[in-house]
Design goal:
Layout lengths: L3 E4 L2 E4 L4 E7 L9 E6 L6 E6 L6 E3 L7 E6 L4 E6 L8 E8 L15 E4 L3 E6 L1
Parallel strand pairs: 2-11
Antiparallel strand pairs: 1-3, 3-8, 4-5, 4-9, 5-6, 7-8, 9-10, 9-11
């Protein structure tokens, strides 16, 4: 069982930046795609970004494309989410997750049910 621990959340002004980190325990981290999701109270968890195991393939939600960048350092078992040009709509609890398979199937990366390990979440609050 993989354990994931997010960090880096906080309060930031609109237009600012934050970098989230997600440290993973366990072996074979580099074999699995990782994803970031976010959730606000009363709404469903929303896909943000994902990165393949080896790192060259990334996908983003339209709402964050061009502003957020997902990356990973497999030697450190860590995945990152660099968030720039933040706005109030980005306020949420951000979760990292491990994909249950070693590769994507179509656009399954959008579905949180295809991830089998989740972190506890880190709060990001953007003040306008």
């Amino acid at each position: 069982q993989v354990q994931l621990v997010e960090s880096g959340g906080g309060l930031v002004q609109a237009g600012g930046s934050l970098r989230l980190s997600c440290a993973a325990s366990g072996r074979a981290f580099s074999l699995y795609p990782m994803g970031w999701f976010r959730q606000v109270p009363g709404k469903e968890r929303e896909f943000v970004a994902t990165i393949s195991g080896s790192g060259p393939t990334t996908y983003y939600a339209d709402s964050v494309k061009g502003r957020f960048t997902i990356s990973r350092e497999n030697a450190k078992n860590t995945v990152y989410l660099q968030m720039n040009s933040l706005n109030a709509e980005d306020t949420a609890v951000y979760y990292c997750a491990k994909h249950r398979r070693m590769g994507y199937s179509g656009r399954d990366y959008l579905d949180d049910r295809t991830y089998d390990s989740w972190g506890q979440g880190t709060q990001v609050t953007v003040s306008s």
